[in-house]
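Supplementary Text 2. Reproducibility record for the structural model of the 233-residue chain.

All settings were left at their defaults, and a single model was retained for analysis rather than an ensemble. We include the record here because the model underlies the residue-level annotations in Supplementary Table 4.
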Amino acid sequence: MISGHVTVYKIYKDGTEETVLDKANLVTAGLGSSFLDIQQGIGSKYIDDYAPHYFQVGTDVIGWSGTVREASSTFYQLSAPFDWSDYGVDTDIILSKRYRGFNASTEDSGATYTELLNTSATLSATVFSGADQYFGKVRAGNVTKFFVDSFEAEIILDENSGNGKSITEIGLFSKNPKGFEKDSPLLMAYKNFDAMVKTSEFSLVVHWTIGFLGLDSSVDDHYTGNTMIRRDR
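Retained model, structure tokens:
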């Protein structure tokens, strides 16, 4: 079973640390799609393309009802991801405009395709597509055995990033699993939470671990990578 864990900390200017979230995440359909590509030999031939490389934060929540629980992981984007200006003028985050990948389906024999959202579709009625969005670059932590054991990533919203925004969701994206000429990030994991208003008084540090439960106890317990970065102002 593949699962993961997200821990979010506030790191204040004086070095004080506050844990604001410590919970399991939702592994999304994009990760499953990448596994299928690997098994069929139709995705990227570079292992780095399947690793966590990009992230987004947002101000809304992807919703689903109990009646679609079996398909609740079938989505490929955040509900309301930050635009370029939302991250802030003096942010330390490296921002890139990328072609976000997703699976789309058709109900009219191919005349139109719509991005899949909490629903299933036969492969014959599905096509891979994309849309341009802004992404932050993940700060890598201690990465262990891609898709054999687990991998870990660290995301930092510094004191100048996202201030004044009520953050309610975060998504982790693989780099380029389809192996396109330019990176096409694909959502691999998602977490929503109670709104956290970001201010210049603290940095927001996210530790994210995903792996095969039962093989590595760190996967569902805590981040085991680099020590979080603290900066004196």
